[in-house]
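Lab notes, practical 5.
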Amino acid sequence: MKQNLIKYFLISALFTTIFASPFSANASVNDIHMSYLYGGTTSSTLENIDRTLGAIDTATPEFYNLNPDGSLKSSVDKSLIEELHKRGLKVVPFITNHFDRNLGQIAMKNRESLSTQLVDSVVKNNLDGIDIDIENLNYTDKEVFTDFIRLLDKKMPNDKTISIAVAANPNGWTAGWHGSYDYLKISEYSDYLMVMTYDESWKGGTVGPVASLSFVENSIKSLLNQGVDPKKIVLGLPFYGRIWKDDEKFGGDGVPNKSVNSIVKRHKGKLFFDNVSKSAYAKFTVKRTDSPTYIGGKKLPEGNYTIWYENDLSLKYKLRLVEKYNLRGTGSWDLNQADNGIWDYYASWANGEHNFIDSENHWAEKDIMSLYKKGWIDGKTEYSFDPNGDLTRAQAVVILINAINLDETNEAIPNYFTDVPTNHWAKRDIEIAHKYNIVNGTNPHTFKPNAKISRAQLAAIISRILDYPFNNMNASPFYDVQKEHWAYQDILKLSSKGIIKGKEDGKFYPSEYIKRAQMAAIVNRASKDLEKYQITK
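Output from the prediction step:
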């Protein structure tokens, strides 16, 4: 069986508090980001590829269909293959039965010949593999479909990829077309499963999200519970939405994500984000006097409409699941429907950048990401850093102990502070910091680990670590920090090095509680010296 090199994420399990994140700052780049190419001309497809900024590494065009007798119907575009290869992309085209159950079943009866035809075409046309998108078979076809994948695996050269588009099945259905997949077995015969985690709401169905976060996540869990290797799972993302007219009995036509904003703007509608499903939706009214709007060649009649779709925020939540569950990568249907505004983020994420959703464009974003990459800080959740949230004394100590790499895992933990029990998540770091005179208690044997930390307290702790000389510095640059202040020397030392700064009014506000973003900025400015001045035991 084909086995590609797999880059593994290192999953962090540092803490069980709300300060923890399940991701390691040193997580590797996931190694497959494929997208289906459906419709469009060769030139328009290449333009869309170029707009992805390198986020997509595998192109999956529709080169193969089925003849009525179940044999291969080929429409290979050699010029497209050449251009995609020039751009450094792998070309793994898909074969489809267009949801035609009868045609798919005929093809499965012809599986010996069809598998040979596919392999021969892949090799002949210098393709990088094949994606099997045979949908809507029945549960009674499970064994023959599995055998078809086995035959492909047996015949395909080892340097070629076999991927399989499979239905998302969060509920574990065993009947109908969901039951046609032996997920575990076909994953063993293939390089990866492209899980179609979309169409939660479908044409003719109830109005709702195309891919709510819970639907997507439960689909992943279902596969993992069946024993499928997470590195055999590629998460499918929808680059389309669905539209319903309020009084329509059979709605849910597809609409490209790239068209939603212009449609809503034309009809003076509104955009919304549902925080439960983590999905975007829009509402608008088509009036008799409005300029016409066409979707899928059909003119929208007068009435009230709802579109559920994916925007950059909803996609970001889904991308986090790839990291959370250590999956192989992402797939998408289909590239020609994508909103081009997603690619800056998608490309940086695909290359290993973990940007917290709530810290994008924040003044301290670079500081936050710098410390995250060093492994010194984590988010409060896999999605958020909470830059404007308060920091506790325990959290501050853990960050600084990480920064100076002070580790005594092989030594017994002291028990100086009575309010830091043995099972406290930061017990070891707090006691080690006290042992080396980095922190003091608020009273003898009392640390108050969950209390908020002030700007002056943080300055004092960092100053004790770096131990800069005071050298009779000039007057304080801050109106509210004079010689009688207990942290006067500490604050001036760090200020002289550019590590801490005051506010625009010339004050430092030493008693003000420090925010998580402020902590990140201060520690990042001190990072070179923190690494240099590691404490010697």
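Observations recorded by the TA: Residues 111-124 form the longest helix (14 residues). Residues 1-29 have pLDDT under 50 and may be disordered.
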